């Protein structure tokens, strides 16, 4: 329980050449920080001996009632869709397996947010705005998005990615009024192919100079922006070899930055100075639409409920 609830302090482990020594998985996983809840330690229980007893739970609602959650009244899920507006959502699902895409669908299913999966063929076909108001690109490398599986290695319908024509169709979707939301690695394609006034300041940086293999960091939010309006001005966010942006134009609306002080909350962060104060979440107008870029993954592994409101608000903003 301590490992799950307390912050992790991971040591600086370097190889003989000075590069960061990669951990088995991640370096910080403190659940309360990921979930956006407070979990103070209870050091003593003020109960008499006769009050200390275990009670057999009869059903799920006894737990939900104690936690002030909505009660289950039927087979229908008690979790209500956090997006009140009628927004048509498409989640990109390419032919190359992508774990982040799977976690994205898992989160949307958990919160009963309606969506459709959109494959390479649909992106290449175009006319996306007629079907969708919001397109979501889960974290994925540009090469995998554009090129996909190599021809001859899979059946023809599963080869080729979205191709250059798909990139053009995504541009047209935004220019015609659509909202595109990108997570982490997928931001690279949009920034470079759409010529957005942003750059990833961590691109090409060696692990001897910067390394954060999966840790919880502090985000500073602009509470005046609709995407962050419902949240505190400082929240934990999950960074797993993620991105950090700098703007090259005043048209960029900065929604969140990595904190300038007390940045690391749990895990390992080597080269903290390269992350402090950089852009973590931005909105860029484009034509009649906009692109919202998460430098991190707000739905990472389905655990980071603390940053999910940023995603729901980003989707809701498409209806305004």
Give an overview in words:
The protein is α/β, with parallel strands linked by helices and 320 residues long. It contains nine helices and twelve strands. It has a single domain, classed as Rossmann fold (3-Layer(aba) Sandwich). It has helices at 2-5, 31-35, 60-66, 99-110, 120-125, 142-147, 163-175, 187-193, 308-316; strands at 89-92, 116-118, 134-137, 179-183, 198-200, 215-221, 234-239, 245-247, 253-258, 264-266, 279-286, 289-294. The strands form two sheets. Strands 1, 2, 3, 4, 6, 7, 9, 10, 11 and 12 form a ten-stranded mixed β-sheet that branches. Strands 5-8 form a two-stranded antiparallel ribbon. Strand 1 (89-92), helix 4 (99-110) and strand 2 form a beta-alpha-beta unit. It is globular and about 70 Å long. The N and C termini lie far apart (43 Å).
Break the fold down into its secondary structure elements and pairings.
Blueprint: H1 2-5, H2 31-35, H3 60-66, E1 89-92, H4 99-110, E2 116-118, H5 120-125, E3 134-137, H6 142-147, H7 163-175, E4 179-183, H8 187-193, E5 198-200, E6 215-221, E7 234-239, E8 245-247, E9 253-258, E10 264-266, E11 279-286, E12 289-294, H9 308-316
Parallel strand pairs: 1-2, 1-3, 3-4, 4-12
Antiparallel strand pairs: 5-8, 6-7, 6-9, 6-10, 9-11, 11-12
């Amino acid at each position: 329980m301590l490992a799950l609830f307390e912050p992790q302090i991971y040591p600086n482990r370097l190889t003989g050449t000075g590069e960061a020594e990669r951990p088995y998985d991640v370096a910080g996983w403190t659940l309360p920080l990921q979930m956006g809840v407070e979990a103070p330690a209870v050091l003593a229980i003020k109960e008499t001996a006769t009050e200390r007893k275990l009670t057999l739970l009869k059903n799920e609602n006894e737990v939900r009632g104690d936690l002030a959650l909505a009660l289950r009244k039927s087979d229908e899920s008690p979790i209500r869709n956090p997006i009140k507006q009628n927004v048509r959502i498409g989640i990109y699902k390419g032919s190359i397996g992508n774990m982040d895409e799977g976690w994205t669908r898992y989160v949307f299913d958990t919160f009963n947010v309606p969506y459709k999966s959109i494959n390479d063929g649909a992106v290449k076909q175009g006319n996306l705005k007629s079907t969708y108001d919001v397109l979501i690109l889960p974290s994925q490398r540009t090469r995998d998005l554009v090129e996909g599986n190599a021809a001859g290695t899979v059946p023809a319908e599963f080869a080729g990615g979205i191709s250059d024509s798909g990139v053009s169709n995504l541009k047209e979707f935004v220019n015609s009024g659509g909202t595109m939301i990108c997570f982490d690695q997928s931001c690279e394609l949009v920034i470079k192919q759409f010529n957005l006034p942003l750059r990833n300041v961590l691109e090409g940086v060696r692990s001897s100079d910067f390394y954060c293999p999966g840790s919880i960091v502090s985000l500073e939010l602009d509470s005046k922006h609709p995407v962050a309006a419902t949240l505190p001005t400082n929240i934990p966010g999950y960074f797993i070899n993620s991105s950090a942006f700098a703007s090259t134009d005043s048209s960029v609306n900065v929604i969140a930055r990595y904190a300038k002080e007390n940045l690391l909350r749990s895990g390992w962060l080597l080269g903290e100075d390269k992350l402090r104060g950089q852009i973590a979440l931005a909105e860029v107008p484009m034509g009649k639409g906009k692109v919202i870029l998460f430098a991190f993954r707000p739905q990472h592994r389905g655990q980071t409920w603390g940053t999910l409101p940023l995603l729901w608000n980003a989707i809701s903003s498409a209806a305004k």
